């Protein structure tokens, strides 16, 4: 498929141009340079594709001498056909028979529109008729051989194009592994750029990292909140390792939990976080959260039962290298019992 080959050509060009650009920045970005050096270039393959196919996916005459010759013969044959048909159209003998003085194509054959009632007076092969039935599209007997020759040339053209595409596909196949490796390098570089662009958009900073369970978020913001956002400060893991957040409804308790969780995950994914300079995040081996109402009709679980199911699972799997986020611990039951349950879980 010529259009798919053009898509591959664009990848090859992109690889070459990106590598050329990134190698110029090696002094400023040495780690990017290391990745850029892994990108392979395919200049000869690019030239071969450009020689044979244009940017719209059309195989060019210059792709092979044989294709150029066939296409010249097609043009000559088409012209001869049209000249013959023009002679018929202009002939006074057929003036009253022809519906319209034009040449058209039906079933890949050049034909003339003829009045249905005059069919017997026009020797030829009927290939089609109009929706109304008043017009028949007839191929005159005198051009049948020319039409046959033209169809044969078109078949020859299709076979030659197939040979050219097979040749290019084979050349691509020989370098397929190298191309694939380069695409993976481009993907990695693109991912780095995407992270940088996201950090710039969020006005994010690089957090300090530790493995001691210490979190110190300064002026942190949830990355999905837009507009005027009230930042939060969270300190956890040194003087104490359990933090209970209380306050009225819509006071931001759940958003705070989500902010801590998502910023922790962002940092562990190599992303900058939307917070102030000096913010610090720990690398946790496990992160558990139970946030929101997860009622299950299928399992016939109430709000309370649903929370309890998750909390039991968390208590079973969490350890000293885990971050656990629990929202509205003990909700869905009697406040006194819920408070007692919350204290037991925290203990």
UniProtKB/TrEMBL annotation:
Coiled-coil ranges per UniProt: none
Xref: Gene3D superfamilies: P-loop containing nucleotide triphosphate hydrolases
Keywords, alphabetical: ATP-binding, DNA-binding, Nucleotide-binding
Any single Pfam family the record assigns to this protein: MutS_V
GO terms, molecular function: ATP binding; ATP hydrolysis activity; ATP-dependent DNA damage sensor activity; endonuclease activity; mismatched DNA binding
Keyword DNA-binding attached: yes
Alphabetical list of NCBIfam families matching this protein: mutS2 (TIGR01069)
SMART domains per UniProt: MUTSac (SM00534), MUTSd (SM00533)
UniProt-listed PROSITE patterns: DNA_MISMATCH_REPAIR_2 (PS00486)
Protein's GO biological process: mismatch repair; negative regulation of DNA recombination
Name of the protein this chain belongs to: DNA mismatch repair proteins mutS family domain-containing protein
Domain DNA mismatch repair proteins mutS family: 322-338
